Amino acid sequence: MKPRIIICGLGRTGYKIFRLLKQQGVAVVGISNRVMPGDENNIIIGDLRAVSTLLAAGLEHSQTLVLACNDDALNLAILTQARVINPRIRIVNRLFNSSLGTRLDQTLPDHVSMSVSSLAAPVFAFAAMGNQAIGQLKLHNQTWPIQEEIITESHPWMGTQLSDLWDERTRMLIYYLPMDSNLDLVSAVAQGKQLQPGDRLIIGTQPRFRPKRQSWLQKLLKVFTNLQQFQHHAQPMLVVTLFLLLIIFTATLTYVCVNLETSIVDALYFSVGMITGAGGQEEVAEKSPDTIKVFTAVMMLVGAGVIGICYALLNDFVLGTRLKQFWDAARVPYKNHYVVCGLGNVGVQILYQLHAQGHELVVIESNPNNRFLNIVRSLGIAVIHGDASLPATLTAAHIQRAEALLAVTSDDTANLEIALSAKSLASKLSVVVRNQDPHFSHMVQQVFEFEAVLSPTELATPSFAAAALGGQVLGNGMIGDTLWVALATKITTEHPFCGRRVKDAARSADFVPLYVETKYQTIHGWDLLELNLAAGDLLYLTMPAVGLEQLWRTTPPQMMVR
């Protein structure tokens, strides 16, 4: 029996999850606080936190509750109410606060926290690196990009046998859709079938990491070569300092000229002490004419004002934000870096992805009080404060020599303006744009010829749907209208695959085995297909979401015999 799933909160993300699960033939019910177009028989209207609303949706007898509201506090309120009604229900919780989500996962049984930004960020990062990923796959503690290969006459894999691609460790064959048959991937590999025009192949590619970043000596040299980036901040301090030195020089020269018996050192010592208020060598002025005493009084007043301004600028530079801005501006990468415009939830997750792979980065953020600034600086990433749509700001980020720019603010119009400004300065620059509306995204990409225009909601929805269906989800993607899921399933004595050869189980259940972890080793390639699954093995596989029901059935006794 397929699980009964409740989607609570039918906003943009929730409604897409609801529609996707329904499309896969899953028994799903939606709860909304407003009237929704169509699907009236499957949607309950009411207060999302009310007991009556949750009971009307059948929470008592449901297996999974997906909390899809964009308000963490509301999701938590619904969670507590739902667990009172049905303590055993599985919760998939959409949370912006990732640290809170981790704590809840560790504290509550059958609780899975997910974030739209963390799910979408890897695909943005892959797109910026030139990889047209349609999803992600988490294997071997790495996030692999997933892409679709459509075989054409000119494709390098045209005529290649699938068996030749099967045993490559840096590439995972995930799904296969032949043009002229319904042959599954495992059967096609076993039969040595050749790829033909029109065939579609979904693959995951192991990510590549750049060499270790520059040494401290190289970074220090870069600081000195990039000092001009901070000229507009240093100019006031420089002007006041020069004026102060000019006053000291003028006073020293005056006292030496008036009294030739006064040494230059004594005159300098008195001038500095007089202007700073420290005192010393007062006899230099006391033995001078009245005009010099008046001159000394004027110098004291002027010097006090200049010293005050100098101290104020110095405090602003050291104790305020100027020093951080100076350091950020001085260490902006010169070339082969990625420029991320917008330091929101999506932006910071993209930075994590690119930084982990060894890429040089710079952030452009207009809000000097952004909550992620300290986190980004702790990673050694340069931050430029300013409007990313202005040519001067983009030039300061060395946009002409960057690898790519990602416009990922929360404002779609601002993202478009940033992307167009960047293209006007560097026409060959790769540009990835964030847009909330997936339908508008395709049109924007087509009209302006950006490398990618992506919607976080569109990218994250399949992951929520896959998590709602259960299991340890490792990745997912869409092939046409079909949702496929990558997951790990533990083989038990009652598991439908226990005692069966991987090749035979894959053919009958239409899944693709990725690898198996036994008590002693990890098995890949050809050895994987011939392995007999035993209790305790952990099987990593991909399969259509509509076939997940097979993993929940108990196995008849005759199928449990080896």
Provide tags for this entry.
elongated; alpha/beta; 42% helix; 6-stranded parallel β-sheet; disordered C terminus; single chain; 562 residues; 9-stranded antiparallel β-sheet
What is this entry, summarized?
The model is unreliable at 553-562 (pLDDT under 50).
Could you state the oligomeric state of the chains shown? single chain
Number of helices: 21
The stretches of 5 or more residues where confidence is low (pLDDT under 50) are 553-562
Shape: elongated
Describe the largest sheet. 9 strands, antiparallel
Q: What is the distance, rounded to the nearest whole angstrom, between the alpha carbons of the first and last residues?
A: 26 Å
State the helical fraction: 40-55%
User: Whole-number average pLDDT?
Assistant: 82
Strand-pairing-aware structural class: alpha/beta
Strand content: 15-25%
Q: What's the Cα radius of gyration?
A: 33 Å
Describe the strand arrangement of the main beta sheet, using strand numbers. Answer: 9-10-8-7-17-18-21-19-20
* Count of individual beta strands: 21
